[in-house]
Write a structure and sequence with these properties.
With 360 residues, the protein is mostly helical. The protein is built from 16 helices and 3 strands. The chain folds into 2 domains: 12-115, DNA polymerase, domain 1, CATH 1.10.150; 132-360, Intergrase catalytic core (hpI Integrase, Chain A). The protein has helices spanning 12-27, 33-50, 65-68, 83-102, 112-115, 135-142, 149-164, 168-171, 210-224, 255-269, 277-290, 295-304, 310-316, 322-334, 338-341, 345-358; strands at 179-180, 185-188, 202-205. It has a 3-stranded antiparallel β-sheet, with no helix packed on it. It starts with 11 loop residues before the first helix and ends with a helix.
Amino acid sequence: MLAPQEKNMINKKNWKLTNQYLDDRLHVDQISQGSLGVEKTYLRYLLEWADVTHFSKARKITPTFPEYMKTARLDNKKGSLSPTHINKILSTARRFFMWLFERGGQYRSLKPSWIKKIRSKRLTAIPQTKEYVSYEDILEIDRIPARTAMERRIQAAAVLMYLTGIRVGALVTLPIKAVDLKNRFIYQYPSLGVHTKNNKSAKTVIYPIPELLAVVQAWDNEIREVLPEDGFWFAPLLPESGEIDPNNLIAKDSRVSLVQKNLRKFLRKYGLPERSPHKFRHGHVHYGQAHSRNQADYKAVSQNVMHSTTGITDQFYSNMGDQEKKNRIDSMFNNKSESEEKPDEYALFREFLSWKDANK
């Protein structure tokens, strides 16, 4: 868990409390190790803010934690953290202090009314356009003449990430039996050994894009000739020959970084812009959004990336660039509306009645 640092005056009792809290989050709330690591970092800010003061007296600490977070950094870089990052840290602080309040005793002084105030009143983020792999980008990747097993593997992995929105941690732990290309499903089931965020379980649909599916199908055929169904779809390769290793059925922690390394090398070799694995997930959402005809379609895209609400999808994945936004708005005004294209049926009916009256 957290460890006190000599250079900072951290209250040891506070440090023990944060460790107990993290232990509860892991074993009671059953959050993932990844989420636990993030909260561990967020709690470091609380420990540094409190300094030698015990958390039971947190209400008396000045500046307040929200004020402190306006300038606080653990990485010694200049400038403040992003508003989004700060709000996540404040949210963790509120949850931690509520946990303390529920313990009773001396922590009853941490009233819920005070805890609710641990938030920033005004945090304005600089507008940012989040990068994503576009349909044109993935077609370029798809058309690369991959020659080695490593190239075929990373090419197929990149395309599958785009077609499904699967996270890289799930991709590298995906067994072959969890990939059903015939019915276009990926079974992201922790029960099958797939490492999903917060251990969520979902049956993910693969986008029906024939020109992209061909590369994925070719790799799927190649590995099924060598590996059992429990083997990894992102198949381990032999270091000596670079061919598929039929005996390696153990998922190593370094496989996520291996995807990042292979992808970077592959794109550089063929002169394409470098993209992180998560940008393919962004591309999946953008493509789905662009082809959604109604709210139900968009909800299907949102659920396909295992989001509990479409609001999460909107907030983190579907921000469109300025040019895309302009193109969409321009198309709204350049194209005739449905009512303009169709004749006025009521006007035609009135003309018929007038003709009928005149010919009585």
